[in-house]
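lol ok so funny story. i was supposed to be doing the assay writeup but got distracted and ended up predicting the structure for this chain instead. priorities right. anyway since i did it might as well share w the group, maybe its usefull for someone
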Amino acid sequence: MKRKLLFLLGIFLLLIVIGGFIKLLSSRSPKEGELRVESTPIVGVFLDNKHLGRSPLKEKLKTGEYTLRLVPESATSELAPWQGKISVGANLLTYVNAVLSDSELSSAVDILWLEKSVAKKPELSVITNPDGATVVVDDTTRGVTPLTMQDIDVGEHSLTIASPGFLTRTMKIKLTTGFKLIANLKLALSTIGGQPEEASVSAEVSRTPTPTTKPGTTKSPTPTGATTTTSDPKKPYALILDTPTGFLRVRMEPSTAATEAGRVKPGEKYHISDEKSGWYEISYDGTNDGWISGQYADKVE
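and the output, tada:
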């Protein structure tokens, strides 16, 4: 009887060990999300300098942050490529819709993805480049970007982003409890007859999404920046490039969410005292320091 009990006990312990081993292997297996890229025109899709294929593209990826580069394959015109950061979450979709033009300033790129949230209601975070755009949800103005909202009900909503002199973006979104939907939108400079045109995008991002897009765009000449005749500052220095607004914001911290400290103009040059994550620290008024985005500045060494 004792031998039988010992035998059964041994089998039970063995099953526990096997179950724990399987659980350990499962926890160590890489988690994956999905990247979808749609574009006008067709582009080559590169992730961390690795060619994944052509748009439209659907690819399973390990979770994490990546550098995405879209290179137009049009043989009839020279279009500007686009590059930016994306985030891929476990069992979630990251959706990119790009409408590229002959200038980066007149190209529009929408990036939407989900993050888990502990809030009782779904959250919506809207980021734009440039920031300061008006956010309208279901025909109600909610504020200006960057903006996070925690009082929106579950379900489908209409999201409109508007900024003077830029292509207005309108899209359908779907919010789910337990998740924050992040919409990072690069606005396209677009003015025809003094009035901005409008592009519409329909995108549903969820745990099992099926987004569709109806992109629209228009070309606009690239603005000419100012030039200076003063002597160059000490190297390395930043040469401010043309911007959609005619100026570049200086931030208190290296982030688009940081407080604006001042403004600098295209063509101006400033010594770089520090560099962090694509941002340059400069002394913008000879006394105070602040951070500018490297997206609109050339580093001269």
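The chain has one helix and 23 strands. The chain has two domains: 32-202, 237-300.
back to the writeup now i swear
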